[in-house]
Each structure stands twice: as structure tokens, then as C-alpha cells.
From TrEMBL:
Taxonomic source organism: Streptomyces harbinensis
Protein name: DNA-binding transcriptional regulator, LysR family
GO molecular function: DNA binding; DNA-binding transcription factor activity
UniProt keyword terms in alphabetical order: DNA-binding, Transcription, Transcription regulation
Keyword Chloroplast: no
Domain HTH lysR-type intervals: 1-58
Amino acid sequence: MQLQQLRYFTAVAETRHFTRAAEREHVSQPSLSQQIKALERELGAELFHRARGHIGLTDAGAALLPLARRILADTETARREVQEVAQLRRGRVRLGATPSLCASLVPDVLRTFKDRYPGVDLLVHEGGSRDLVRLLASGELDLALVITPLQADAPALVTGELLREELVLISPPGGPSPVRGRRAARVADLREVPLVMFRRGYDLRELTVAACQQAGFEPVFSVEGGEMDAVLGFVRAGLGVAVVPSMVAARSGLPTTPFAAPGLHRTVSVAHRGDVSPPRAARELERILMTHRGGL
């Protein structure tokens, strides 16, 4: 059984026409028919009902079709892997990142990667750290930028610290703020202050709430449930203040106040599965990420 025969068989099964299948595969119709007959002889069963003006799958053909598609798909995956080795002219990287990192760090890193490897496809999934960890564990991502340490019940992953990012307070432009005119804020300043809060499961929400609780109070939310862009918009509209990463605040144009020492921080790490080595393109993206942190 040859891969070429399986491609011809799949083409006929999908077009239900020998001539159109031959055109799709860029081969003469007699050659395609001969290969199909050779495959049928090897398998000992007819794969198609051949009637004038109609081609249909036999039971044997219907059983073979999903297997043939899977074999061809696996072959394509193997071809991609080999091409990656050839100077990364082709390939694919599936990167996961939190919305705040997609709005700050990730665009510059992907620009550097794409300039060097224009033939490599980049697929970015934006989500919370918990969602990204789950997608990594299931094999749906090659790399992810997540907030560490991971939850105790998280799957086993290999992580490497990328950066320790300062968290700051952003306020409405010209609106009320508990820290307006001050050089630094304290978490205690947020007591009874309306906060614009991220949705549940968002790492910044958990960090902010934990900091407030450690300071001895429960935070008050003016509005909650948003992603990063929504939170910035709510603050800009004067609905309250919010705690965000410094890289996001720097691009927001909103009044920004750092927290007094020791401040608030979060650790961003690059993660991948420990039982499977990432594809070469993903390893190269990880290297660029680690190099890029030196400029932050």
C-alpha cells in the first residue's frame, strides 16, 4: 500500500469522479485508475461501485476512507516537522498568552520572530493562565506565557521565568482617584474605593483581591467581568480605578501610580509540556522570548 495510492483513493472518494480526481492530483486518468485497481488487488476488495455517471464507496471503501485520511494527515505532519529542521522555512507555532501580555509584550516578540522566519505560521490563543495550562496539557498549544507559580492542581509542565512585572494603579483621566497627586499608592488606599475588576479566573483579579485581603479588607467593585481592553475602557469612562501590569499601563495613556515598596508584582513564565519536546519553531520562539526579556 503506497501513500500515492491512498491520495488517489481519497481524491476519488471526495470527488466521486475519476477524471476530476485525476485533475486534482495532476495525473492522467488512466494512471490514477491503475493505481486504484492495484490498491484494490492488494486489499482484496473493491473500494468503489462503478456505474455510468455515478461512483460510490463500497463498504470496504467506506471503512478505508477515515484511515486513509488519518495516514495522509500524519504524513503531512511528518513532512512539516522535517521542513522545520530545514532552517525553519516552514512550520507552525501555537502560542498562548494572557490578554495583558497580548497587549504589551507579545506583539514585539512576534514581530521579531516573523522578521526572521516569515514562512512559519503563528497561531495565538488569548486566555487566562488556567485556560492556557489546560490547553498546553491537552496538546493544543506548543508554548504559553502563564503566571507562576501555577495552581497546586495544575498539570506537570516545564516552566522558565521570563520576567517579574510590576503592577500599578490606573485612574480615570481627570476623574476622582484616591491617589491623585501622590507619588506612590498603598494597597490600603483602595479600601472602600470602587474598583474596575477583571472576570473570575483572571490572574490579575486573584492577585488584587488577595492583596486587599492581606491588607485587612474586602475590595469593592464598581463593575466586574471584563477582559483587559474592557477594563481599560471602564477606567477611562470614570467607573473606577484598576490594578494592571506596568507594561499595559504605559500604553494606556491613563494616569498611573506605582505602589509603595515592596509593591505588587507578578511572575510571567514560559511553559510547555514536560513529556513532549516542543517543535523546533516553538523552541526558537522561546529563545527569542528569553532574549527579549533583557530589554524590558
